[in-house]
Amino acid sequence: MNAVNIKDEIFWVGVNDYQTILFEGMWPIDQEGVSYNAYVINDEKVAIIDTVKSIKADEYIEKIKSIIGDKMVDYLIVNHMEPDHSSGITELLAEYPDMQIVGNKKTFPIMNNFYKICENLHEVCDGDTLCLGKHTLQFFMTPMVHWPESMVTYDITDKVLFSMDVFGSFKAPVGSIFDGDNDLAAFEEPTRRYYACIVGKVAGQALKALNKLGGIEIETICPSHGLIWRDNPKHILDMYVKMSAKETDPGVVIAYGSMYGCTQKAAEALAIALKSEGVGEVKLYDVAKTDISFIISDIWKYKGLFLGAPSYYGQIFPKMANLLYKLSEIRVDNHKVGFFGNYSWSGGADKNFNAFIECTKADTIDEILMIQGTPDEADVIKLKALAKKMAEAIN
Ligand SMILES: Cc1cc2nc3c(=O)[nH]c(=O)nc-3n(C[C@H](O)[C@H](O)[C@H](O)COP(=O)(O)O)c2cc1C
Ligand SMILES: [Fe+2]
Ligand SMILES: [Fe+2]
């Protein structure tokens, strides 16, 4: 894709990345890619908002030149130092060595550490403005959404918010970067998966940031990943408000691990019982087969959660431990949670589930149901009772 005009002197100069397999080294993006959005404001003074991941710097600089020709870049605004947006800075500086780098007091130490850049720095504070000629930009600090130095940039003139990772999404837009040209339903899951895995831990700060921005009039939202919201910014605003407030839909995710099928049998019995209790959406995931990002995305969506795993050398099945670790970080405090474990000797999985409950203060529907080996008729009755409690709890 070439550079794209967004409004007046504002252009998209971002890139799509289909090369990276794991975002942040762990979240699969090999199927649909991701975009790193960057922007140029070609005013009397030329400002660039963010760079892109360095593997794509050539394409990014080519796009900038297609807009500004031989003009120099006056400002590079660094909304966020995470290298998916900042690592192209070395290449950009090589091209425009005199540009001023705009950031806040937490931006520059990270920049110096990553790239040994400590000159031509222009420090801004919350609410500060920068005039480019026709356009005036205003900066708002949004600490910890996503990193300590995170900030957003607002174009007062055109009412455009350059929102950094906020309102971002996995899935590289194909053919058009604008919301109005894309199937928004197809972006719902990638947006939620991005939110749950990347921003989920700082959902509270995200909500604060949204409230802070509530006072400004926003016509267009230009995030660092995913679609540009020009036709219907309310769509993504509403979705983010809902996700930040941890509002859930009725439905249950059953995430389980199983070496030899005993825990799996219990999980399936729960699914059947939930359905006969009238639960509309029941999602069954094997934690060893489905990447946890997809499971966490659905957990963020649905109110009910069952976690099941066998014991493993006095502890829990390691792939479940991995999910518990991430869930304890993002918390499941608006959920109803049930647990089922399995063992042959003296257990172990229950220990980790108990520690998880203690640490997260999870709203449990019942005690942990520990089953020895293959679930028998008595176990199935207990599983049915557990499913009934869950169905009641989420309604
Ligand atoms: C490597 C390994 C370690 C295990 N560690 C424990 C354990 O610490 N405590 C226990 O009671 N059972 C332990 N077991 C037995 C399983 O937890 C038990 O057989 C369970 O029913 C398996 O459930 P699954 O069929 O869902 O994998 C272990 C099994 C394996 C293969
Ligand atoms: Fe980030
Ligand atoms: Fe990002």
TrEMBL record:
It holds the Pfam family Flavodoxin_1. InterPro entries: Flavodoxin/NO_synth (IPR008254), Flavoprotein-like_sf (IPR029039), Metallo-B-lactamas (IPR001279), ODP_dom (IPR045761), RibonucZ/Hydroxyglut_hydro (IPR036866), Rubredoxin-O_OxRdtase (IPR016440). It comes from the Bacteria. Residues 252-391 form the Flavodoxin-like domain. Coiled coil: none annotated. In the N-terminal section; belongs to the zinc metallo-hydrolase group 3 family. This is MBL fold metallo-hydrolase. It comes from Acetobacterium fimetarium.
